[in-house]
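User: Can you write out an input/output pair for a complex, sequences first and structure second?

Assistant: Here is one pair. Inputs:
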Amino acid sequence: MRGMSGSSESLERRGRSPDAGQEASEDTGLPRQAWTLLFELMHAHMRNFPALAAEFELSPVQAHVVRQLGEGPLAMSTLANYLSCDASNVTGLVDRMEARGLVERRSSEQDRRVKMLVLTEAGVALRERLLERLAEPPELIAALSDEDLRALRDIMRRALRSQ
Amino acid sequence: MRGMSGSSESLERRGRSPDAGQEASEDTGLPRQAWTLLFELMHAHMRNFPALAAEFELSPVQAHVVRQLGEGPLAMSTLANYLSCDASNVTGLVDRMEARGLVERRSSEQDRRVKMLVLTEAGVALRERLLERLAEPPELIAALSDEDLRALRDIMRRALRSQ
DNA sequence: TATTGTTATACTCTATAACTATA
DNA sequence: TATAGTTATAGAGTATAACAATA
C-alpha cells in the first residue's frame, strides 16, 4: 500500500558495508550503531503496516485509533494529541469510523464542550483481532535464537521503563 | 503532525501490567514477548517521523524517497515498488520533488519507456543532512547501558542478516 | 477570554482505470 | 500483447483559519 518503506541500506553516511557503524571508537558510536540498525529493522517492518491495517479494512491511522481506544472513553482532543495531529482532522476521522459503526461520540457531562469516544461492541471485537494480528512476530524476529529473544525482550523492557 | 502514534500500552490482550508477556511457558511466548515490546518502542518513535521530515520541509514519503535514492539512478517503477504503492502515485510525487529541485528524471537509453531518477546536487546535500538526523538515537535508546547497546546492536545485525 | 469541536479550504498521498509510447 | 509512465478521478489524511457553543 504505502507508508514507510523498508530498506536494506544502512543509515551510515560511510556506506553499506556489513560493518558500517564500526568506525571511530566503539564507545562514542555505540548508541548510534545500535539505533541505526534498529531503525533499519523498524522501517523494514513499518512498510507492511498499511497492508496489515487493510486486512481489517482500516486505514493506517484508523488502525492506530482502534489500538489507542482500548482503555475506555477518550476525549477527541486527547486523541488528536495521541495522533500528533490537529483537532480538526479528528472530526472527519471519527465521522468515518462512526459511519462504519466502530466508535461512538458521547457528550461529556462534566464539560459539555467535550465529546468522549468509545469503541462500539463491533469496535471492541475488531480491536481484539487487530491486537492479536499485530502481536504476531515477523520472520526477522521469529528467526532469532531464544537467547537473543530473551536479551532483546529484557533490553526493550529497560528502554521502555524510562518512558 | 501525524502518523503512527506512540503508546505506553502493551499489545498483550491480558493488560498492561509491567510484566505482561510473562504468562504461559516462556519459550512458546518468547518471540511474541520480544516483538510486542519492540513494536511498542517502534511506534513510540515513528510517531515523530512526520515532524522529523518536516524539519527538512519534506513530507514523510518524500523523506523516505530521499533516503532510498542514495544508491544512484532508480527507475520510477522500482521506486513504486520500494514504496509499496501504485506507479501512478510516483508521477505526482516526483513532480513535486522535481519542482523543488531535489531530483531529476532521465530517460533510460536502454529502454526509452523507462525514466531513471537521480538526486540533484541539492538533493544529495539534503540527503546527507537527513541521514545524519535520522541516525541520532532517541533518548530511549541513548539512555541504555553500553552492555545493552552492544547486545542490541549485535542482535539487530543477526536479525537483519537473514533479510 | 480561553477551550472544544466543527466547518471550509487547500495540499499530499493513495487507489483504480484509461491512456500513450514504447517494447 | 505487455510494460513504463502519465492523466483523470475519487477518497483519506493533514494543516490553517474562522466559527459556534461552552467554560
